[in-house]
Amino acid sequence: MHMSFSVAVAGASGYAGGEALRLLLGHPEARIGTLTAHANAGTRLGEHQPHLRSLADRVLEPTGVEALAGHDVVVLALPHGASGKVAAALAERGDDAVVIDLGADHRLVDPAAWEAFYGSPHAGTWPYGMPELLHPGERTAAAQRTQLAGTRRIAVPGCNVTAVTFGLQPGIAAGVIEPVDLVAVLANGYSGAGRSLKTHLLASEALGNAQPYAVGGTHRHIPEIQQNLRSAGAADVTISFTPTLVPMSRGILATATARLVPGTDPAAVRAAWEQTYADEPFITLLPEGQWPTTAATAGANTALVQVAVDAAAGRVVTVTALDNLVKGTAGAAVQSLNLALGLPETLGLPTEGVAP
Amino acid sequence: MHMSFSVAVAGASGYAGGEALRLLLGHPEARIGTLTAHANAGTRLGEHQPHLRSLADRVLEPTGVEALAGHDVVVLALPHGASGKVAAALAERGDDAVVIDLGADHRLVDPAAWEAFYGSPHAGTWPYGMPELLHPGERTAAAQRTQLAGTRRIAVPGCNVTAVTFGLQPGIAAGVIEPVDLVAVLANGYSGAGRSLKTHLLASEALGNAQPYAVGGTHRHIPEIQQNLRSAGAADVTISFTPTLVPMSRGILATATARLVPGTDPAAVRAAWEQTYADEPFITLLPEGQWPTTAATAGANTALVQVAVDAAAGRVVTVTALDNLVKGTAGAAVQSLNLALGLPETLGLPTEGVAP
Amino acid sequence: MHMSFSVAVAGASGYAGGEALRLLLGHPEARIGTLTAHANAGTRLGEHQPHLRSLADRVLEPTGVEALAGHDVVVLALPHGASGKVAAALAERGDDAVVIDLGADHRLVDPAAWEAFYGSPHAGTWPYGMPELLHPGERTAAAQRTQLAGTRRIAVPGCNVTAVTFGLQPGIAAGVIEPVDLVAVLANGYSGAGRSLKTHLLASEALGNAQPYAVGGTHRHIPEIQQNLRSAGAADVTISFTPTLVPMSRGILATATARLVPGTDPAAVRAAWEQTYADEPFITLLPEGQWPTTAATAGANTALVQVAVDAAAGRVVTVTALDNLVKGTAGAAVQSLNLALGLPETLGLPTEGVAP
Amino acid sequence: MHMSFSVAVAGASGYAGGEALRLLLGHPEARIGTLTAHANAGTRLGEHQPHLRSLADRVLEPTGVEALAGHDVVVLALPHGASGKVAAALAERGDDAVVIDLGADHRLVDPAAWEAFYGSPHAGTWPYGMPELLHPGERTAAAQRTQLAGTRRIAVPGCNVTAVTFGLQPGIAAGVIEPVDLVAVLANGYSGAGRSLKTHLLASEALGNAQPYAVGGTHRHIPEIQQNLRSAGAADVTISFTPTLVPMSRGILATATARLVPGTDPAAVRAAWEQTYADEPFITLLPEGQWPTTAATAGANTALVQVAVDAAAGRVVTVTALDNLVKGTAGAAVQSLNLALGLPETLGLPTEGVAP
């Protein structure tokens, strides 16, 4: 059975849009439709994405509902605040495309959390594109997949959120770690910041340098992490969250630690992670003693996870590695799209990284 | 008044030894004496340290007490386990050189802590080469400087230890953070691992990659951090400590967090760090809102520190940046040596980094 | 029609072997058979190639004809000198596998050239795995493809050789550049050196550094370049060839220049490159003014080429970018294998790079 | 004898201005005066140059003659086109400061060459800040030093120009290489492009990438190289010149090759370079067989040079490594300033690099 679909990508000249295209080009059922951009409209895609050889001569159209209408799927890789309007305008025309938002607009359930961190009115919540998210009472993810099956709207998770959620949710669900006083520190590649012209994103500033940002509880991914860990069973969640830019283009290495619930048998810790991820196609709990590295996930829809108990510190330490543009963004989008369209969840998604 | 001194360096073909030489070449009172090596004995220094132009034609002698004797100062940049014997043999000959150990052998006060993490008999404790270390009851460092004045033995601190200690000790001393349940995650440059031929240290493995190591409470720097924070006033210290290698040659960015003591006024937090570091010549608390970056410290004996209160998480977040080979090793050695010899503490030490 | 084949890989724990596996995992007709290694025999592949998720639990067997026999295809990623013996031993057993050598042993036609650069007896010449190589009188490559069709032995070209050949052969064949006094300078990623434990390959030596190697006419790829350009029509070839290691894991950027044949119309220059590469599936002559970058080819079997006439200098300048492990090694192997097996030449080979 | 001087720096928030400040802070006779900027006027220097600890609290004034007047020395690190006006306005006020231009405006002697490559009227020629430049008939540099002694205007050379000139001039002067058909290919760090917000200078574009620019005879440094090699004795000079950006912040590795003059004894080649550089304080011809690396020059006013004869190719190959911001810009400025002020040429200039 074939279930070919056409897909338009808005924001095709940026990093997230480019990665969505790269994955869709490798998807056996996807046909690439219209590509749009804002400032780069009218230019060839090959000028901006020289790695996408087969689309090099495609000319970018101006982002707007006229260009995006008439496809089976629309992927929005836009600055936050823009996706809600595009989706509404499509709906108004009677266009029933599956709309996938790679941005932040529709991830949060709680409008107050949105407004506190983004300072603008909330645009509404869409089904959350993380099939592996545990729901209350679950030890292996099923309910989120059900939620995504057949949906016409998908809000793709934040890349840092994905890494921290994968690291901690098994322990929350199993009740072996405390959901409060979590601490996460991340090493982040620069592509997560997008193709924006800012001084601190220049190569000269990045090379030979490690620089933190959004320190001290201000990062916009914090409420989304809390939401996910509440989904996994936490009553309340507090987390200290610090991302740091390091000189690599792709990749997130998230070190997330939590207090071990007093009296927990260390064996129960590993068992919790094993149970949750044993059958996940894109999340691997590594053999004991082997720690995740970001390079092993480059270009792949893979998250690598490891967990250890530091008895002296009274903490469980987890490390998660993933490619921010793939499992952290565009791969999660395609995986969720497969569910939305009723295709096999893993269809067209690479699991082998490009290393070294 | 001049107080010129001669200095021999053992392990001159390695990274720590090379950095000691670079700094000593810029020291107005130092005269470089014998240089020794193990496997590289008999070769020109210029083959191994092509950046040390003025010493390029020096031939390395085999490391041993014969070559090292007869200097005012001996710097030991040797694998751990070796320095105690060299110092003893020098003493036996009646050689009264100031001996500086860049390795770990003589840092720990507690033999049991040494044996637990290193698995070999303890070699004895030397005065600790961290002039900025707070002693019980201190809010600004004085006692450690007194301890170093006139000493003939110096144990230079571990580089990761220095970064974490500088980040946390003001809050411990001021009683505004809890000394238990500390969490530190570090981004580390590769030179910290020395010039050792190991697969995970190859360029192909490092580029585009972030990799953790010694996760879960096994890193040998842990007891040294605990010792320092006890010196700063903590009754007991527990810490989860995770270093991660990122693709840079030099630099440590240490994100160290601690629980805010309940009821503490946030203003008291900043005041604690300000008080401790206001007059330190080599530690700078950055203006509020500016975060440390490692590149700003490259080649300099400078540590940059910032602190913020994350009220929602109930944690104080500190970030410290330094150059592992300078303030983390060879710069601390020269600074302590200045104190040992009765020279001005800052003599010959650069504070301006080489950036970008 | 299906034409599934089994394939064994010798040297599976190295970079070239790993990349062959990555590509073969994405090949619709390949079934991965035995994996072998030398020092790493007995260990899991996942320890060495953590990015190859689907083969992580495969145990490496000792490299030898017993392990390799009985497959349709054998890929040899071995130190030079080893492949001839393995192939002979397989033939002796009556094993008629297609044998692909990723090493240098069987590339050169002239035994004297081999002995001059490698200092050992020549092991014989195998059909050369560069389908795009021009033969005398050709302007588009056909004869080499014929030579590869149905072959049981393939000698995969050197990665630097491939980049320089692609850059210069159209101009040689068209008679618009002189084949003597060529100059090629390359920026090379570290993976080209393999996973060997050498000091200059350490991350600390590579980061923030550019270092040349094999300068002054000593590099072993020189006779192979000469052989290829003679194939493209040159009577005699002289070339100054200098590779330089730069801080990236993958990629070759080859700047190769040649004297413009006096009196040549500049338009004829571009026309020559256009004609040769217009229909090549894996070589793209970029639009005028756009220059190749290595990142655009990462992970892809793509070579990007550009050419310009520097009239004032009297030289034609070409720049070629490719991924040394893909189009430079393992991709060329699979492409040639497709021809050997009678499969479509492009089957299973990615053309989209993983960027940024 | 003391000869303290005050120095103002215009463009202090950029990379070249920052490096001038770093070196001047280490100069025993320099007192840092006014610092100016354009867009960053009114802000603290510490926001832009966090590595310059001792000047962190200096506030930048708007660039203009009012702010710059009244100093012994004025360093101009401005976009090209600006320095001539500032110098003229200072002269008009009777201000007799030594004015040093780090930009391109006053390097070229030939107005036609300027206009062909820059497209604007020529601003006049200033004494050229390369003390090591050979003049006709010289084998060791003296005349250029004479020209700089006591001058009130200095035009600092281009960084690429310096690397290529140092590589080739000894052979030109000795008559052992042809001055025509030269080929230079450079690996360049990103700081050479300044702190400009351009897409191709972003970290995500730079990491894991090598990208050429200004290929095919268009780079503005070409006429300056020709001018220098004519100074060294060439009747006419033709050169193919290709810079390539590689993922490092600082450093130039210039591979420059030339045709060996037929019949030249190879020993005469090395002798030529030895003679020219034997007594140069900042240029080192490495021992035979050791090749320059950029990391060895980081932060130092050092150029490392090597030369070899490739007899089969009929070419002499030279490789030069230097730090584009030091020997390529700010170090050359201070060195020339020392000569202008009658100070020892080497005063205050580091020769030891910061490596690894």
UniProtKB/TrEMBL annotation, chains A, B, C, D:
UniProt pathway annotation: Amino-acid biosynthesis; L-arginine biosynthesis; N(2)-acetyl-L-ornithine from L-glutamate: step 3/4
Family according to the record: Belongs to the NAGSA dehydrogenase family. Type 1 subfamily.
Annotated active site: C159
Keyword line: Amino-acid biosynthesis, Arginine biosynthesis, Cytoplasm, NADP, Oxidoreductase
EC number of the protein: 1.2.1.38
Enzyme class: oxidoreductase
Chief location of this protein within or outside the cell: cytoplasm
Catalytic activity, reaction form: N-acetyl-L-glutamate 5-semialdehyde + phosphate + NADP(+) = N-acetyl-L-glutamyl 5-phosphate + NADPH + H(+)
GO molecular function: N-acetyl-gamma-glutamyl-phosphate reductase activity; NAD binding; NADP+ binding
Organism: Cellulomonas soli
Protein name as annotated: N-acetyl-gamma-glutamyl-phosphate reductase
PROSITE patterns: ARGC
Compartment(s) where it occurs, according to its Swiss-Prot or TrEMBL record: Cytoplasm
GO biological process: L-arginine biosynthetic process
Gene it is expressed from: argC
GO cellular component terms listed in the entry, alphabetical order: cytoplasm
Stretches assigned to coiled coil: none
Pfam families, per database record: Semialdhyde_dh, Semialdhyde_dhC_1
Gene3D superfamilies cross-referenced by the UniProt entry: Dihydrodipicolinate Reductase, domain 2 (3.30.360.10), NAD(P)-binding Rossmann-like Domain (3.40.50.720)
Residue span, Semialdehyde dehydrogenase NAD-binding domain: 6-141
